[in-house]
Amino acid sequence: MKDCKYCGHAHTPGSNVCPACGKFYTKIAELIAEEEAEEERRSFQGRVKRIFQSDDIKVAVKLEFKQVISGLSGKAKFTLFVIFVFVFALIVTVI
Ligand SMILES: [Zn+2]
């Protein structure tokens, strides 16, 4: 592979990122890394990890929950609502 096109630092074998300037050597490597980071962000493990890494777990949980809700489609939201109402109705009738 060629040297870094941004700063000219010699290419480090086995690495996709230039150690001198932190930029990716190729656009494809950058896109793959972005894709993986995005997967990590969306995955349940990624969310849990972020929650535990944050200083304020309560705020982190709230934030992640908000993101999950905003990422849901209208149909998914409706389904969740129906489940919630069903569970609520069940609890009320039992009590
Ligand atoms: Zn560089």
**Main sheet overview:** none
- Structural class of the helices, strands and pairings? mainly alpha
> Can you give the mean pLDDT?
89
Calculate Rg over CA atoms: 22 Å
Number of separate helices: 4
Work out the number of β strands: 0
Which ligands, by name, code or SMILES, are bound?
zinc ion
Give the end-to-end Cα distance, rounded to a whole number of Å: 69 Å
Strand content is under 5%
Describe this structure in words.
The mean pLDDT is 89. α1 crosses α2 and α2 packs antiparallel against α3. The radius of gyration is 22 Å and the shape is elongated. It has four helices and no strands. The chain has a domain of 52 residues. The protein is mainly α. Bound molecules: zinc ion. The site of zinc ion has 8 residues, from loops. The site of zinc ion (ZN) has 8 residues, from loops.
Keywords:
single chain; 95 residues; mainly alpha; 65% helix; elongated; binds zinc ion
List the helices and strands and how they pair.
Layout: H1 27-42, H2 44-53, H3 57-71, H4 74-94
Bound molecules: zinc ion.
Zinc ion (ZN) binds at residues 4, 6-7, 9, 18, 20-21, 23.
Compact description:
By secondary structure, this protein is mostly helical.
